[in-house]
Write a structure and sequence with these properties.
single chain; alpha+beta; 71 residues; globular; four-stranded antiparallel beta sheet
Length: 71
């Protein structure tokens, strides 16, 4: 996990590499990338020339938007 300061933001937002994003969402790598293609999952940000990560706030918002289970 890393912290990145957004331009104009008051607080830093943690960013997570793919393995952490998979754990947070309970999705596989292929599911994440398939959902991104369909516009159903947030896109990552580049943190280096080759490495990407997802903002914690984007993952949290995505999780909050998912239907809640009914028991």
């Amino acid at each position: 996990m890393f912290h990145i300061q957004h331009e104009g933001a008051a607080m830093a937002d943690a960013v997570y590499r793919r393995p952490a994003a998979e754990k947070m969402t309970a999705l596989s790598r292929s599911s994440i990338y398939d959902m991104m293609k369909r516009g159903e999952f947030p896109r990552p940000i580049k943190i280096t020339g080759k490495a990407v990560a997802w903002r914690e706030s984007d993952i949290s918002a995505w999780l909050a938007s998912r239907p809640q289970p009914t028991y």
